[in-house]
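Dissemination and training. As part of the outreach component of the grant, students in the summer workshop were shown how a complex can be specified as a set of sequence lines and then modelled as a single object. The example used during the hands-on session is reproduced here so that future cohorts can follow it. Participants entered these lines:
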Amino acid sequence: MYMDAARELVKMTVGQTGVNPPVGAIIVKGGEIVGIGAHLKDGDAHAEVQAIRMAKEKSKNATIYVTLEPCSHYGKTPPCVDAIIEARIKRVIFSVKDRSLKGCTDLMKDHGIEVIQESNEALEQFYAEFFHGKQLQVPITTVKVSSSLDGKVANDFSESKWITNKQVKEDVFKLRHRHDAIITGYQTIKKDNPKLTTRLRDGKSPTPIILSRSGIIDFSLDIFKDDSRNIIIITENKRLRAPYTHVTVFYLDKCNVENILKKLYASGFGRVLVESGPNVTSQFLNSDLVLHFTLYYAPKLIGGSGRYQFFQTEDIVPLHESKLFTCVKTEHIEDNLKLTFKKEI
Amino acid sequence: MYMDAARELVKMTVGQTGVNPPVGAIIVKGGEIVGIGAHLKDGDAHAEVQAIRMAKEKSKNATIYVTLEPCSHYGKTPPCVDAIIEARIKRVIFSVKDRSLKGCTDLMKDHGIEVIQESNEALEQFYAEFFHGKQLQVPITTVKVSSSLDGKVANDFSESKWITNKQVKEDVFKLRHRHDAIITGYQTIKKDNPKLTTRLRDGKSPTPIILSRSGIIDFSLDIFKDDSRNIIIITENKRLRAPYTHVTVFYLDKCNVENILKKLYASGFGRVLVESGPNVTSQFLNSDLVLHFTLYYAPKLIGGSGRYQFFQTEDIVPLHESKLFTCVKTEHIEDNLKLTFKKEI
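and obtained this result:
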């Protein structure tokens, strides 16, 4: 029951903790919740510490439920284990073991604290993605596509506006909100002139990451005008300089998917969304670094030659090597369909 | 309650009544079912007559529930209205009015029979397709596609076997069972050498309809060997003659979708399934004569150049004119997805 409550805190904070995992903590005493904590932002206090701050002296002899094993290391904040010991918490119930940590549980036990692991399949899966990203030093990456049933994102005239409907757009805003950054190609920026914002009340607009190998950029485009928002350009052009302070240029020797994602992770982006044209989309889907794939299908057939298929590659692979996902959810969004896929890791 | 029972009889007999609609009838007396009837085959007794035969003298003063308005015309069988009057049934409750008939209800009322229409949305939709087909003189047509998520039915090596899985194959057998005929291109027969059968216990294998404009046919292929099964070849080649009596050749001036479907309807095929390669599939999907579209998606991305997209057309249409369906059902078949679409008529 309390672990489910702690899991809700994790769901709430997805997309705002950078390369850190969202964590939720609940302190319970005498059958009542006396403290609630969540890790809100990279650099901020951890969930356990927030919960202890709320519970104050009620922490003493209380039980803390926490979604991930409390840490015992000094990162940007002091160890949670120390805070737990100091607050004289009696029992720690955590769900997922942090494979990157050692000795945390033992340390608490040495101080007479009862430590119990309570398994939770959903949380195991959730954190497995963080460990995976941490190990490879790449963000958790989602590709989003809006397509016709025959896999096209535009007709042969390159007409693509409103393949899917207004309700899908709203859903995409929610998807953007849960990511730190949106990766898109410069061609998409130039063609569609998109804002790449989250038009939801109090929604978070992710940082636009614009890919341009050549680095030939028209800085008069709308997206560069809003100086309240950081923008990153990734390029192979050593000489590219941005004329604005809110635009940062990352130079990479080679702009491939792996290098782009590693650079973004190293810059603190823990969860990125790829929302672009077929070229960038295909490159990301063709890599092994995409964990989530959200496919909005309009119940349409576009036909034509298929110049704008969302997945088109230079290499031809045998069928048994084709990219495989697992469908974890199908939803109707008015007359459109939303299919959610995951890659098994 | 009894209309739902009658509707079950309709569901059971879909795909075996040719150009006639399946109809179910239930005769009720003293709170018990005393007669059950269904139209089983074009030329056989209608549902009402079958039910009266079962109920015998119990029909007198009984109520008959029938899914479609009883007919008053001589077709291949005498009018049902006459049988109802003769059996001295007291009350007729039917669900859908047969727009192609006139005066049936009045005739029964003239004989002192109470006639009530009990609306049923599912049956209305079901029979609307029959009226539509009857009006246009074309069969109810379903296109079936097994595709990757990016709309491809094969990779660039034309490798296509088992895009979807064994469970999908089983589901396709059920789909075949509910159709009178399977339309396929000669190229598909030549390439895949398929049996086009329904390997279900006591399943019905639809008549193969092989399209070959040129009429250049290799009659040594497996499909022609089974002489217990009728096969139809549709061609623009006036001189094509089949070397077997179980193979019939239909000559058409022009083998387009409309001409093919009209010819098949005139030959007694009321419900046909298109199961072919991209060429034939695209032509049918591009016509306005396809009412049902069953799409099996494997959770795969195939990529390549897209030579084998399931929908590829010569004409490019503006997005607002793209072919539109309504998704009426999404199902998981193991790791594959089955999407069922309908065209609004």
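Chain A has two domains: 1-132, 137-342. Students were then asked to discuss how this feature might be tested experimentally.
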